[in-house]
Records
---
Amino acid sequence: MAATGTDIESAHLRRALALAEEGRGRVSPNPLVGAVLTSPGGEVIGEGFHARVGELHAERAALADCRERGADPAGATMYLTLEPCAHTGRQPPCTDAILEAGIARVIYASEDPTEKASGRGPGVLRDGGVEVALATGAEAAAARLLNQPFRKHARTGRPLVTYKAAMTLDGRVAAPGGDSRWISSARSRQLVHRRRSQCDAIAVGIGTALADDPLLTARPGEATDATGSEPAASERSPVRVVFDSMARLPLDSALLASVDDGPVMVISSPEAPTRARDALTAARAEVVIAPGPDPPARLAAALGELGSRGLQDLLLEGGPTLAGSFFDADEIDSMMLFVAPVLLGAAGAPSPLEGRGASRIADGTRPLAVEHEPIGEDLLIKARLREW
Ligand code: AOF
Ligand code: ZN
């Protein structure tokens, strides 16, 4: 059967999505964007992606590639994973480049929900005589999924929250006394380090900070020993956030001892003793006060503070009490749950979410989508609770 126009469109958009992926971990706070240019005859004459914040947008990268190949972009079709911008930021408007190049047709797979965009680029192009279409279907859904942190941040001012936890086969994240090292295998923990290196911020509650004295740096290349030894931090340093309402983070904690490897932020309540807050500031942590009449309001205020600092992708690493309050406040967008082949069988050992929760199964939260994949002997379950 001959390929239809839609099949061809889908194939170019899938290629653009794959190109966009190449920028992962380097473009924040910008979105991942990929672009493919085809000649009027249907031949691919240029490819590009947004490689790093501050550098060329995917559109201009694809045009540069086209010219490098000695091809002419006039009359071409441009396939994009995101609507082209019409504003001047760190880069000039992509609409200018598209109009100057004489592109005939632009097909984009997702809208840009930021205030400065929101359809302006497609409008400018239509006014300039370019045929513009928003794709639908599987590629459109994939393009939205690609930039969930960017999209939630643009629409709410808060970061996307991914809760990561490792649990036993009987659903516990720690022994009753708090011991949790290690539930998941070295391979799973390495995967978490890679995920850390791609996010903007990593958060834990003060309970976890006191119990585990974690470093929370991204160490994707870490030797996979079981000793818990802590080698030097990698190139990228996500902000390490501690939800610590009474400002109890110890001044000799591993987190504060490593502020030179990555910033530390402490989210405290207005009730925290001023002296404790000042001591944390003196130890070079940024202390943020999250006000509000109740815990959900304080949590929303805290996430708003993170968002206002441009942090879009937050990895929540526990413990279960903090994660439970995120869940109760409807602030968990997705979960990464590692299930390890070990049984505790202990009453009173905590589960991944220790919140108020639901009292009937019928009132439980059903994720929008669940995927699972074996990671060595563990099983990684990814659940998406919300889509932006
Ligand atoms: C990107 N890469 O490929 C496209 C973007 O500060 P600027 O000039 O880099 O602008 C960033 C904004 O441009 C971004 O938030 C998004 O709205 C729009 N499109 N951005 O970084 C791209 N096409
Ligand atoms: Zn642009």
---
Amino acid sequence: MPALVLLGAQWGDEGKGKATDLLGGSVDYVVRYQGGNNAGHTVVVGDQKYALHLLPSGILTPECTPVIGNGVVVDPSVLFSELNGLNERGVDTSKLLISGNAHIITPYNVTVDKVTERFLGKRKIGTTGRGIGPTYADKINRVGIRIQDLYDESILTQKVEAALEVKNQLLTKLYNRRAIEAGQVVEELLGYADRLKPYVADTVLILNQALEQDKVVLFEGGQGTLLDIDHGTYPFVTSSNPTAGGACTGSGVGPTKISRVIGILKAYTTRVGSGPFPTELLDEDGEALRRIGGERGVTTGRDRRCGWFDAVIARYATRVNGLTDFFLTKLDVLTGWEEIPVCVAYEIDGKRVEELPYSQTDFHHAKPIYENLPGWSEDITKAKSFSDLPKNAQAYVKALEDMSGAQISAIGVGPGRDETIEINSFI
Ligand code: GDP
Ligand code: IMO
Ligand code: MG
């Protein structure tokens, strides 16, 4: 069973970095397939804490080859500062591979992201401001710049000029900003070419050959199912496909090679940025989840919106990703509540609805229907097996499993690598 996908089952920040790092020791390749440095994946190894944005979490495991696939958007300045930061801490990053087909986040894409959000005002998406949406827009509009373009100055210049022709009209005439000079952009991009060169590779060929040799490949999703451009809460989404299908298009590995799809699922729910969130808590319980769970964005430092677990969303994630397993994270954060409400269905315009409505208007009107599950007060952070958990914590996990449609194969009881209960092995 060589290829596994690990992805966010909610609105991101479920603990994908920790889960990827945990499996890193048993896999040969860890591949990011979409998104860019809008991600913030935290990995805690012993007393060391790492925040990864663009690099796959497998970079912290020496035996593992980290890969940035064709579906990722790469900001070279961020890439180098992340690599430098890791090198300074003694992490060897020399095995990194980057697809020559991955698109580059140019300085003008970052500018357009920021001015567009400002222009939208109250209707803003609450993006991370990292240029993600505009870069994917350029890719789809066929005016994007790819990593391989850095190695042909004449093509690069033509492409940057073409992209800026329209953007400068927008920037100067609509947004009242200064025009961006193509020559300067080309010069900056060419400045990255030499240092990038050793990493650039035919990652499609390498990954498929590795799978033929029965090597284990792990795809690490950024963001989450409900932030997916097709399957998420559009328009309050990111501009890529974090869902399982994205692992194929974003890497060039076919779906027949994928044997497990693991959804990372927080024991409650969080969201950053704008958009509907039926179980959001604007009271002291929400404040307590944020405080105890340390729910502050790794990328933008924004407070995360917090709420109870939503089983409707978990079922939806199982369906659109074909999940085989869940990795339930942050169960320890729920310790101390006498009762824990879990959303089992929605009420929409007076009707009980069991599944996620496809209509945005309906979803905006969805009110959670809660079932209260008994809580526990014992410290669970030292639990090593399912039977070490208090009875009520076991019942909470079982109830979530029954409602969510896939087996829970691991449980996080703390941020560290070893603060995990493994139930079914993934590899
Ligand atoms: P990602 O974007 O999905 O990788 O998740 P983030 O790193 O943005 O946010 C998850 C946060 O929860 C990080 O601070 C992790 O260190 C932390 N974390 C992960 N799993 C657990 C867990 O089981 N318990 C606790 N208490 N923290 C966890
Ligand atoms: P990880 O991988 C949580 C959210 C932003 C915004 C929307 C669009 O750490 O789970 P974008 O900059 O992507 O155009 O912003 O998506 N968002 C995330 N929320 N975790 C993330 O990544 C996110 N990446 C983007 O807050 O609402
Ligand atoms: Mg995150």
